[in-house]
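Researcher: Next sequence.
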Amino acid sequence: MKNNDTKKEFIQLRAKGTSFNKIALKLQVSKTTLIEWNKELEREIANLKAIELEELYQMYYVQKQKRIELFGNQLEQIVTELNNRDLSEVQTEKLLEYKLKYLDFLKREEVDLSFQIEEEMDLDKTIASLNKSIKILSI
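Model: Next structure:
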């Protein structure tokens, strides 16, 4: 019977997706034994896979976060530069095109503020509730 270090190495290799054939050659263990170990150590293999996957997600997230920060900083610099520029030299057609693009963008950014009400609540209660909300918002 192989020692625990061999089984630990088996778990690590299987968690990385290494085939039974490659593991058999590397560890000098029969494929049949490896299949038995795979059944016996299924939970440990799955847990290690999950840990490695989480590390990849974390690494990807950090890289994504840095890209977002970089693009955000660049965008701030572009906006600052644009705010400092005079648009009087831009042709009327181009200004109208920009206006339409900006209006379209703003329209896509709108949030639907429709209220969801329960069917059981009657109309008077709904209106009273909305009036309270409006009074609170207007204060």
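Model: Residues 100 and 106 are 10 Å apart (CA to CA). The two ends are 78 Å apart (CA to CA).
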